[in-house]
Structure formats: C-alpha cells, structure tokens
Amino acid sequence: MKNYSFYEQVFDVVRAVPYGRVTTYGAIANYLGAKRSSRLVGWAMNISHGTLPPVPAHRVVNRQGLLTGKSHFAHPNRMQELLESEGVAVAGDQVVGFNDIFWDPSSLDRP
DNA sequence: TGAATGACTCGAT
DNA sequence: GATCGAGCCATTC
Q1: What is the pLDDT of residues A57-99, one digit of tens each?
Q2: CA at A101, C1' at B11: how many angstroms apart?
Q3: Domain locations in chain A?
Q4: Could you tell me which of A19, A20, A69, A76 has the C-alpha nearest to residue A46?
Q5: How far does the CA of A17 sit from the C1' of C7, in Å?
Q6: Of all nucleotides in the shown strands, which has a C1' nearest the CA of A55?
Q7: A6-101: which CATH topology?
Q8: Residue A29 CB neighbours (<10 A)
Q9: All protein residues with a CB under 7 A from any atom of strand B
C-alpha cells in the first residue's frame, strides 16, 4: 500500500499553504527533496481532485506565478476566482505580487 | 518489464 | 531580455 506515496506528501504540503498565500511546484518538490520532480507535483494535483481533504491546488502556481493548471479545474476561471476570494490579486493568468505572497514550505518546521 | 505520461524547471542560443 | 529545447522524477498501463 502506498497511501502515503509521494503524492500524499505533496497534498500535505499544499494543504499547509496559509490562507492568502501561494506556492510553486518547484518549492514543493524542493521541500520533498526532489526539486527536479516539479512535474510530479503537477501530476499529483491531477489526481488530487478526488482527494480528501480537498487540496487547494489553486494556491499552487508555476515558478512564474502563472496559473498554468487553471485549465484543469472544473472551469478555467475557477482557479482565479478562488485566488481572488482569498485576497490574491490575479491579472490575466498571473498572480499579482506573487513574489510578495509566495510561501515557501521550508518555512514549516520539518520533523 | 518496459515504455509512456505530465498543472515544471533550468540552461543555452 | 526573450525564446526554444531538453531533462528530470515518480506513478501508471
């Protein structure tokens, strides 16, 4: 059983993202010790739809702050709606002040 | 078992 | 400074 597979770790990190903050795939992968595995993080989000508790994938953006995964939401605009609902300004498909609201999982106390 | 996939990142031109 | 291509890793069929 691999219930706590690499994906579970990604979900846990994404769910740890504070309200009104965003993180990047690379930051999560780096926190897990595989900065090169940024693609795995994206794939983890792909299966996170039926995962509980829900994973705030809308808080995960690419290194440029672009909502690359918005197309995978129920509705492409849903990701922006959720971000704006949390006070995160989004211009076009990019997070405004991304560098300011960027949250690094390394900030957490690692066991 | 081997090959394929992917919501990214980095380096080079 | 911007654009293009290749690489990387873990999971799944």
Answers
A1: 999 999 999 999 998 998 989 999 999 999 999 998 999 999 9
A2: 27
A3: 6-101
A4: A69
A5: 28
A6: B7
A7: Arc Repressor Mutant, subunit A (1.10.10)
A8: 23
A9: A 24-26, 29, 35, 37-43, 45-46, 48-49, 57, 60, 62-64, 68-69, 71-73, 79
